[in-house]
Amino acid sequence: MTILVTGATASVGRLVVDHLLAHGAADVRALVKNPDRASLPDGVEVAVGYLGEPETMPAALKGVERMYLASYPDTAAEVLALAREAGVKHVVDLSGEPESWWYELVQAVEASGVAWTHLWPGEFMENSTMWAEQIRTSGQVRDAHPESANAAIAMDDVAAVAAAALLDESYIGKALPLTGPETLTRAARVALIGRALGREIPYVELSHEEAVAELTPSMGEFAAWYIDGEAELVDNPQPAVTTVADVLCRPATTFAEWAVTHADEFR
Question: Do 125-152+181-266 and 2-121 have the same topology in CATH?
């Protein structure tokens, strides 16, 4: 059974490859744009292609039975049509709930006629590295809405659930909401990064407008969208769900654990 992992050098896709191998999957094919820079484990078949260029996909899809589909809605309908034609029987997609930016991908997957499993993660813990440079250079965090709260999830947990869903047909036809194990404010996350570093990190509260201005150089037009979302979570915090633990039969990664593992990124 050949499993194609698209976006195999991206943050989540690369981890999906590792988890499939850890489960003993023998026929893992990784879709990469540049094979010379892929750095994939031994035993992984490399296929050259890109979701954004559907014309590159037919060779990569040949003989594939299951596929992890990365979040790229722009050409998803075309890619999925090719997947169905190639005989792909099950797609596990990284997407989002109906009100999210990524629901267009969900609609394309369900319209394709291929069996599906949706993964709907909340914010990634890795997004906290947006604070890394200012922690390294100033020892503090300047941001808005310290009481904004969500249940961020580690990318590795998302990838582990993706691998489990690819290998277990019981998840076909299910949408899996994914969060970390606890709801934390942004201020609490900064405090836990500080604990991992062995020092206190002050949280300097910015106004909503100041935060948008600070993020615009790196996020462009998405800065306002991101900060608006954080503001919404002040009065409507995201609750944690148990999906990761239910699927993996082990606790989801806590933010404190993640902060210790990633502490060097903030030093």
Answer: yes
Quick: pLDDT tens for 194-238.
Answer: 999 999 999 999 999 999 998 899 889 889 989 999 999 999 999
pTM of the model: 0.95
Q: Which fold does the domain 125-152+181-266 belong to in CATH?
A: Rossmann fold (3.40.50)
Angle at which helices 222-235 and 208-219 pack, to 10 degrees?
140
The residues, ordered by sequence, that sit 6+ positions from 2 with a Cβ below 8 Å of its Cβ are 27, 28, 29, 45, 63, 64, 65, 66
CA-wise closest residue to 135 among 179, 220, 197? 197
Pairwise CA distance, residues 175 & 225, whole Å: 25
In the prediction, which pLDDT does 218 show? 85
Residue ranges of the domains in the chain? 2-121, 125-152+181-266
Q: Which CATH architecture is the domain 2-121 placed in?
A: 3-Layer(aba) Sandwich (3.40)
